[in-house]
Amino acid sequence: METKPVHFKNVSREESHGYDRKTLDYIRNAAAHGLYEIRGMGAKRKLPNFDDLVFLGASMSRYPLEGYREKCVTKTLLGTRFAKKPIELDIPITIAGMSFGSLSANVKEALGRAATEMGTSTTTGDGGMTPEERQSSKTLIYQCLPSRYGFNPDDVRRADAIEVVIGQGAKPGGGGMLLGQKVSPRVAKMRTLPEGIDQRSACRHPDWTGPDDLAIKIQELREITDWEKPIYVKVGATRTFHDVKLAVHSGADVIVVDGMQGGTAATQTCFIEHIGIPTLAAVRQAVNALEDLDMIGKVQLVVSGGIRTGADVAKALAMGADAVAIGQGVLVALGCNGETYYQNGALHAAEADYTAIGAAPGFCHHCHTGKCPVGITTQDAILEQRLSPEVGAKHLRNYLKTLNMELTTIARACGKQNVHHLEREDLVALTIEAAAMAGLPLAGTNWIPGQGF
Amino acid sequence: MERLTFDLATTSLRELNTFLHTDAKEGKVEAVTVVNPDGAHNIAVGLDCPISVEVVGHAGYYAGGMNKSATITIDGSAGTGVGENMMSGKVHVKGFASNGAGASAQGGLLVIEGDAGLRCGISLKGGNIVVGGSVGSFSAFMAQAGTMVICGDAGDALGDSLYEAVLYVKGSVKSLGADAQYEPMTDADIATVAGLLDKAGLDHDPKAFKRIASQRSLYHWNADANQEY
Amino acid sequence: MCGIVGLLVKTPALRERLGELMVPMLIGMTERGPDSAGLAVFGQPLPESERKISLYSGLTEDGADFNWLGLSHELKSHLGVSAQVEAKGNHAVLSFGLAPEVVKRWVKEHYPKLHILSTGRSIDLYKDIGTPAEVAARYGFAGLKGSHLVGHTRMATESAVTPDRAHPFTAGEDFCLVHNGSLSNPNGIRRMLEPRGISFETDNDTEAACRFLEWRLREGDDLETALQKGFEELDGFYTFLMGTPDKLALIRDPFACKPAVVAETDDYVAIASEFRSLAHLPGVKHAHVFEPAPEEMYVWNA
């Protein structure tokens, strides 16, 4: 008898790299809506970052300091070039500019309290200064943005420094968005907008274009504040070498360089993922520019965009930053993407609220919806109660303390009595990409890709 | 002391502004005259008292910037960003004004007797601007609140992406920007125009103006897609 | 990013004072352009058969001690041409009765580090790094005479601070251009022109605009048509000021983000990025002062 061979249907499971599930989703969404996606947070793609660098701790050739006992200075001065009253910070870790509007008033207050306790600064955002954050922040940096929402001379005079924002790492060249759900009555009033509308922010300042004009704008801000307050200039990282030089020419006291990992409350995904360069590449370009102009120590550099850990801080400082600014990490410390929130003395599950907005803890980038399940990026009267200023401040203080301990312990291990004495020769790179971008030798070699053998 | 004269040919701008922020604020003078401005930038910026400042000649960028309460008159022309972010008071330019006049002004009155350049009243947030001549392209771009009265013509894309600001134009408009539309003049509009012309000291028939305001179709970015972002 | 100045005198008597009137204009633009400065001055043209070239020796080993007379002797012995030399330190104007390409080719071959700044019958060109005041003093700008000039102070954006990257840029003969702003497609323009035999000396965005417009003029466009094509092809932000032997021309892009002010009297037309560079001019208080409109062409005849 003849036996019939069993015939198995062979189903191919080979996923296309070009048309993977993410891309298929993207095309289907585009076809369904005719609009680009807007979301919060920063770039999600894998990028060379500070994890690709390691420190050469002290050993035989250099001598370490004792981890807890021997002093390691973290004091940081910003704005020493022209301002009569430079910013003095106890730690080189600052809070990045995030708006009231994208964040709740409670969160802004929490940031201020924690920063004040830790002797560092916090920063306003697009939409102006709230009395809560001014009151809670010992040192407050006031942003002057293209939209000028809520920008006014009284707050300029109340601020400790002014930060002229030219761009953001998440979206260099683009303006922001604040979707209607977050334009609450209070936000609307501060920004002079109708309630509940989708707010569009400008990409360019209304009264100047280019560094030659910025020089005059900076002079105006100095004249208004009688040359007391430092003027920061913040750029999103792209042509950072040139931009930093031009910011120096324009008269900046402090330059903030925000790499592409930097977060946002609501921006086109195509900007977040496709415009800008990684922080690792930007910090080196910025330092090169300052060295070229002999401005090291005269104009300070603040680096932001994907600074998460004390090791990141230490590496940024070693690369040449005077301080770092943290946004997303701060929000995570407050509970962003957590499974629970703490309210009325107890923990509550947030899972259902994540599900309702099509997200899950650990995967949420839905700041733009204003329905933050843990009460951070929201203007909703009920949701915002999920984060009280006290609880938020406690967690943030702990986070900043941890970062600072890690920073100093690394600095001591490298034999430094001052964290600002970390230098780029204390670092080597683990990957060729990181070595090329940061201009550091590949570990165990003296090879810096792109700089000869 | 009633009136004090500052000669910018011999006195620094910093001295002038510091005086206006301190002694003037304490009420030590009622009026200041600035001679030989010669296009200097940032004249009388950040004032915070009801003083009167007269600039005899041409001013550079940001004259009267961020003004509160003061009355600043410029006999000549004004550079970029005159009266930018004004909160209250008055800035009066007798000549022409460059780009971005009255940018982001939240209050007060900006009068430009001559023409204004591009982006006049950009991001306006509540101030009133009266232009005796014409305005350049992209004027009132993203203007959020406040009023502009334009006695001459307007360039391209007038009122692009307007929010709640209202514009009145007497002459021709080269083109309206996205989301701007003509609307009928009501009695209230005519009264508004007449009142502002009167304050500006300009003589025009308020009935001859057209009203332009937002269609509000950009207010909701995705109005017809169930807000699915 | 920069400051621009231009001056055209209508009254012939003022030609003697052209440089003197201009120096404060240039210095007034120092904050807009502290890196480097330069200018092109147009005077009485040489006879039809003669040409002059402006040369810069600052990049050669001898720098300001360059042996200009030696150069003219070599030209005599190699090419048989008698060249008049007017030298001042690292700068010289060589005039001669020969096709300029022959002389320029010889110079490039024998003195590759000698930079040729301009070619023509009317134009003399000076540019160098340093503040406007330093550059003006170095070359005695105050003593320059002529009918009109185009000047510039530079704050470098994307290309380095070097003498050859300072403005004005020239292309062809008796044409120069200065720029305030930043082009967003200079490399595309460059790649379009290179296959047409047009070579570039720097990576500066302004050079792309200059060579594009000169190419159009050489292809037979009149200035107006060439500039119209410029509006279509050159993307980005710009205020351009251009000089030809008998004209001064100004255009601004449609957004006109970069400033420009004009003061005109019966005696002169003066142009600058800001009024502070015009404030010292005689009779400016009674001048017709205005801002040029975007996308309009302003042409003044010498």
TrEMBL record, chain A:
Residue ranges annotated for the Glutamate synthase domain, each copy included: 80-337, 363-416
Xref: InterPro entries: Aldolase_TIM, GltB, GltB_archl_type, Glu_synthdom
Keywords, sorted A to Z: Oxidoreductase
Keyword rRNA-binding: no
GO BP annotation list: glutamate biosynthetic process
Domain of life (superkingdom): Bacteria
GO MF annotation: an example: glutamate synthase activity
The keyword Oxidoreductase appears for this protein: yes
Membrane-crossing residue ranges in chain numbering: none
Assigned protein family: Belongs to the glutamate synthase family.
Protein name per UniProt: FMN-binding glutamate synthase family protein
Native species: Parazoarcus communis
Automatic annotation (TrEMBL), chain B:
InterPro entries: Glu_synth_asu_C_sf, Glu_synth_lsu_3
Sample GO molecular function, one term: oxidoreductase activity
UniProt-recorded name of the protein: Protein glxC
Lineage: Bacteria, Pseudomonadati, Pseudomonadota, Betaproteobacteria, Rhodocyclales
From TrEMBL, chain C:
Single GO MF descriptor: glycosyltransferase activity
Recorded coiled-coil stretches: none
Pfam families: GATase_6
UniProt entry keywords in alphabetical sequence: Glutamine amidotransferase, Glycosyltransferase, Transferase
Residue span(s) of domain Glutamine amidotransferase type-2: 2-302
Top-rank lineage group of the source organism: Bacteria
InterPro entries for this protein: GATase_2_dom, Ntn_hydrolases_N
Name the record gives this protein: Amidophosphoribosyltransferase
Organism: Parazoarcus communis
Lineage: Bacteria, Pseudomonadati, Pseudomonadota, Betaproteobacteria, Rhodocyclales
